[in-house]
């Protein structure tokens, strides 16, 4: 049997991003956190944590963190089964979701479920190409990802497809694309991306216009609402999802810069194969309500 006090210390280091933050979370000294992690490593006889910034688990560390999270969920359910008439405690669930999904469809898909169940949800917002790293590290029990192959010990189901369009205001298009939208004009005009992890625009330009060696001037706007406003204000061109552009294309406030060259993004739900009851309910609800919203 593992000492769960030691596992809790290591989990806090990973989830909070460092020994000092873990110490504050656990209300103990940083030295005590370090001692608990070292003791756990001595107990299993192998390194469990890479002392980077932020610290990351080794392969064995990931397995132990996933185990620790599963045990916590199972214990929460066991308490309700032992005392079904007692006050229902909230169950903590952690998931990783790409920002577009979080902003555009996730709340609509899962809002009623979260109202009906005693769950507090911790969402780690990340690029869709990176959300699975949180699952791999044991930080979450599931993630929405562009990756279609399952991680070891996990299952994967397709949720649907988000479609993105290269768009700008008519005035912006008139200013920068007077001779049409092509390699030269796209490299001269300012584009908009979310952050340095956001590769969607680069991937779009490479796939649809064969722009691979050069990069246009870019606004970096790390907030989804402001990212969209930069485009609708005529400050740059960028990619917006179908639900964001349908009405604007219809009323003429935005134009499709590359008709017939939209970018489909397939999304998948990854989760543990061995799930708690509440985790299984979460997965079932997501698989039921997400696909209609992604058509």
User: Which fold name corresponds to the CATH topology of the domain at 162-265?
Assistant: D-Maltodextrin-Binding Protein, domain 2
Give the terminus-to-terminus CA distance: 47 Å
Question: Which second-level CATH architecture of the domain at 162-265 applies?
Answer: 3-Layer(aba) Sandwich
* Total strand segments: 11
SSE string: HHHEEHEHEHEEHHEHEHEHEEH
CATH superfamily grouping of the domain at 162-265: Periplasmic binding protein-like II
Cα-atom radius of gyration = 22 Å
Mean of residue pLDDT values: 90
What structural class results from the helix and strand content?
Answer: alpha/beta
Output the CATH class name of the domain at 162-265.
Alpha Beta
Low-confidence stretches: none
Main β-sheet, in a few words? 7 strands, mixed
Helix content: 40-55%
Number of helices: 12
Shape: elongated
Organism: Pseudobacteriovorax antillogorgiicola
Protein name: LysR family transcriptional regulator, chromosome initiation inhibitor
Domain HTH lysR-type: 1-58
Keywords: DNA-binding, Transcription, Transcription regulation
Explained architecture:
Belongs to the LysR transcriptional regulatory family. It comes from Pseudobacteriovorax antillogorgiicola. GO terms for molecular function: DNA binding; DNA-binding transcription factor activity. It holds the Pfam family HTH_1. Keywords: DNA-binding, Transcription, Transcription regulation. The chain is α/β, with parallel strands linked by helices and 295 residues long. It has a domain at 162-265: D-Maltodextrin-Binding Protein, domain 2 (3-Layer(aba) Sandwich), CATH 3.40.190. The chain has twelve helices and eleven strands. The protein has helices spanning 4-16, 19-26, 30-44, 59-82, 99-116, 131-136, 170-176, 183-188, 200-209, 224-232, 242-251, 277-293; strands at residues 49-50, 56-57, 91-98, 119-126, 142-145, 154-168, 191-193, 218-220, 238-241, 255-256, 263-272. Strands 3, 4, 5, 6, 9, 10 and 11 form a seven-stranded mixed beta sheet that branches. Strands 1-2 form a two-stranded antiparallel sheet. β1 and β2 (56-57) form a beta hairpin. α1 packs across α2. It is elongated and about 70 Å long. The mean pLDDT is 90.
